[in-house]
Records
---
Amino acid sequence: MATTSDFRNGLVIEHNGDLFTIVEFQHVKPGKGPAFVRTKLKNLKSGKVLPNTFNAGVKINVQRIERRKYQYLYNDGEAFHFMNTETYEQTFIDKSLIPAPGLLKEGQEVEIVVHVDTDTTISCDMPAYVVLEVTYTEPGEKGNTATNALKEATVETGAKVKVPLFINIGDKIKVDTRSGNYSERVNA
């Protein structure tokens, strides 16, 4: 058991039956009354950030989590199969734990966050950007570039991304996995 004096950014604690990571904290010692710690806690399952205040010296339950590197293999509908890059052990996780499952490309490396005590998967962290090849898009119209017009393109994973008119079939594009938006064209 730890206390509030052990708080640091990134520490994972159990609070109200859920796992939270400390995003921000501040020890406050007012002129009158007892000291306390004002925090911002991020729920590891839902991603919501909640403010919370702890009395100074309160015991907290610190949890151990590990970030493990895995390589994406394939999916069979709802379950996505991954292989640990160090032990070659295979595992699968639910589609709901992956932020952008449509942008996962076979062979791509991700970090899977695992709660060590229960050996359960908490989340799957994808790289910020992925490079994908455009497999289908309508041709752009010449002279229609005065506005920031976008068209829909299908990438090699089957996901649909809005791209500028100058993008053609076979182009490689960089896609932001957090928003699913086109970022830039990549010269291969």
---
Amino acid sequence: MSFVFVLSSDGQPLDPCHPARARQLLDHGKAAVWRRYPFTIRLSERSVAERVTHPHRLKLDPGSKTTGIAVVAETTGRVVWAGELTHRGQAIRDALLSRRASRRSRRQRKTRYRQPRFLNRRRPAGWLAPSLQHRVATTLTWVNRLRRFVPVTAISTEMVRFDTQLLENAEISGVAYQQGTLAGYEVREYLLEKWGRRCAYCGATNTPLQVEHIVPRARGGSDRISNLALACEPCNIKKGTQTAAEFGHPDIQAQARRPLKDAAAVNTTRWALYQHLIATGLPVEVGTGGHTKFNRTRLGLEKAHWHDAACVGASTPEALDVRGVRPLLITATGHGNRQMAGLNRYGFPIRHRQRKKRHFGFQTGDIARATVTTGTKQGVYIGRVAVRAIGAFNITTTTSAKIQGLNHRFFRTVHRSDGYTYAAALG
């Protein structure tokens, strides 16, 4: 049960209210639905009492694939709203590679002797690859969006996923890896991401994992992060003072030295995101991934992106109220593309697209309700619309059922396409 965002009659953000209170306001005509995702109502009457707001903190857990978002009431420690934003950085990278391959093939066919032009371009300061810039842009989109709906007075974000200085100079050994120092949490969080939260030797999951040395300390092994792996207790005991290669896993050492790709993506974008958050003019608190896990473990919360977001930074209260919160699952889909010609697998154009995106008042990606009253497909369908110029639309429902060829007259808009799809988390 996430709270409902409330706007005043002149569009100013007020304190979120309980869903029951929102239904009461809607039933009595004192408010109207302003936005479906996230669900927001706007009051129709001016009220001085409703103008009293309390501070809320927007908390972010930036990730390579998914970013956790939480809005926490500062005075009560209640999580009033949560979301998980799934990025499309990999899809952008794949699209760029496909476009580059088609472009090179075309140039090879038509301008065979053209001189290379890759040396006459200069990248501006602060340039990020498009797939990385997308992560920053979508996160900022939701920061600005939530600031319009909630009286946010401060922001908390994970500045670094892992404190690399603590990783390289961890002054801990032996059982201290399992016994709650913050440096230990930095190391363990990195290793959990690195080894996929499973035993490096037998692949066991959902079992307590111990930090162990690939080359044992008794054999001259160091405490560097490149010499550490995760093992379940039986494997750790059985391995003893053997190296990973002697234990029958020579690939473990190579995998331990391999960089963590997702962590590199987050570390690349962290400063750009931080600078944009500072530009909002709000106080910005930063924390590390190890500190986040320390808070989440202390509060007894399960691993989830929005739980991590709620636990970012030293501002996390001693008692965090997450009862009944169901995060909104947000997936970035983009706003379409400007490619006017579709290509076959050899890079030759086979179809062309109209410049017009909107037909009969609808655009592909809109969430709509189709009430079909005639024909063999009678019924009520709610989902994403795929438009056609001839007026026969397709709709994909929340259960992934695809109904084709419905007349545009049956459709009513629920939520305009804004580059994202939405779903409620189960449970």
---
Amino acid sequence: MKNLRRLLALLTAATMITITGCATVGGQSTQSAPAATEASEEAPAAEAEALSEAESAEEPSETETAASPQEKESYLIGICQLVQHPALDAATQGFKDALTEEFGEAVSFDEQNAAGDTSTAATICTNLVSENVDLILANATPALQAAAAATNEIPVLGTSITEYGVALEIEDFNGTVGGNISGTSDLPPLDKQAAMVTELFPEAKTAGILYCSAEPNSKYQADMVKQNLEASGLTVNIYTFSDSNDVAAVTGEAVANVDVIYIPTDNTAASCTEAINNVAKPAGIPIVAGEEGIMSGCGVATLSISYYDLGVTTGKMAIRILKGEENISEMPIEYYPDPVKKYNPVLSEALGVTIPDDYTAAE
């Protein structure tokens, strides 16, 4: 508005200069030489200055054009969660709680669940990009892959991701994804999880590893645990199911051939713990799980992380991004620092498993 008023004032001044250099004689305009010269020199100068002011008004500064995130009055956060189960639910809740604590009513969420279907996850992420959300939370590996395919501009934070190099097919992954992606990992120390198997079941000769073949991060964990168990002298057999439809059948094959089963942080397994337990428990085969949600449903013990706290950590990363305090392309993946040995008291008692004193009973 100031620029507009100045423009009008300058144009008026230019006009007045021209008028004052004129005289009317016999109804005709005549102009003295000095006045004409002054008008010809000053009017264009005034007009040029006015045009310059107009251009400045029409072209805001870089600060005005690219307002920093902290100037925003509200934020819309998109959430794509692969499937509903306790671990992923807890991570999403922790993420939302962290952002709500920071921004209050200024933050809102478009939270959607893909019900375990990767194509649905892709559709969800595409829709979130169309909404022009400020940031996307991708909860679980297929959700992260869908978000990465949908946008290379909107910040994407993953959570409940085991290994980002595997999930995003990054060779020689150094801990920082780069671009518009970062997040948190739920990867526990796999060597320590393998050690739990031999600690709790020293008489076991054969171990089975059970997971979904469609989840690359599950395969990564299975391969690492297999190496550690074999180094301890166990024979290890791998059993994979392609989806929830063949979980019970594959579990039945496993319990018929092993002394103990290990299940990594596998999303399909986590959503099918009842079906697994209905086969493994009657057969008397104990399960060591990669995370507490699976343990609560069908396992006797785990080296557990808190998925809620993992979500809070992811939320704090989002806050720093939204406030412009950090560049997501430079943010390394963050890990849960203090996993805890936990056990399932009900299932442990039912299977007659003796639990060492340094394990904490799950609630």
